[in-house]
Predict the 3D structure of the following.
Amino acid sequence: MGRGASPHRAPSLTPEGIPDRLYGRRRGHPLRPRQERLLELALPRFRLAAAEAADPRAVFPDAADLWLEVGFGGGEHALALAAANPAVALIASEVFENGLCSLLTRIVPEGAEANAPPPPHLRLWPQDARHLVALLPDAVLGRLYLMFPDPWPKARHAKRRFVNPAMLPLVARVLRPGAEWRIASDDPTYQAWVEESFAAQPFFARAGHAIGSRPEAWHPTRYEAKAIREGRTPHYWTFVRTDAPWN
C-alpha cells in the first residue's frame, strides 16, 4: 500500500492518470430557501442511484431509447430534449448545485418539493459523469450530449476535460454502434482539443461539423447565447460510434 493510502478508499472509476474529479466547485452564489429544499427533498427522488446505473433499462422499462447529457448547466437543453423526445429516457448529469436547482425549479411546483414525482423518463446524476459512464452497462446509450463544457483552458487542467483520449474507449463502451455523440464548444482551446482527441482513434467517425450556425434539430443553451453575444464562434460536432471494439 502506498504512503498515505487508505485501506477503506473506494477504487477510482476514472482511467489511470486522470483526476478522479471532473469538476471544480459545486456551488456558486448562496442558495435560497426554496433551492435548499429542492436539493434536500426533491433531488433524492429525481436522482439515478448508483445501483440503478448498472441497469437503467429497469428504471425506464418502456423507453424507446436512453440518452445522456453530461453537464446540463441550467437545464434548459435537457428539458428541451425531454420535451421534444417524450418516448426517450434521459439521464442528465450536473454537479453544480445551482444548475441542479435551476432544472428542478422548472419542473417541481412551489410547495411540492417533498412529494412531486420525477418525470417518468428523466433522472439526474449529481456526480462526476465519468463515474456514471463507468457504472453503465455496455452499449446502453443511443446518444450522448456534451454541450459547451468547461474548457479547463490551463494546460495543467487538461486531464479534467470529459473529451480526453483516455476517456474515448470508456465512452465507446456505453454507446452502441451507430449511436451519436454530439459536442458543442465556443472555446478555441477546447475546439482544438476536440479535433486533436478525435483525430486518430477507431471508436468514433465524424458525421458532422458545423461552425457558427447550430445544426437543425439541436436545441439552444444559455452558454451558446452568451458565446454569440460576446463574439465567440461555436463549433458543433456529431460523432457516430463505429463497431470498433473498445477493449
About this structure: Residues 64 and 87 are 6 Å apart (CA to CA). The beta strands are 65-70, 88-93, 122-125, 141-147, 175-185, 204-211, 235-241.
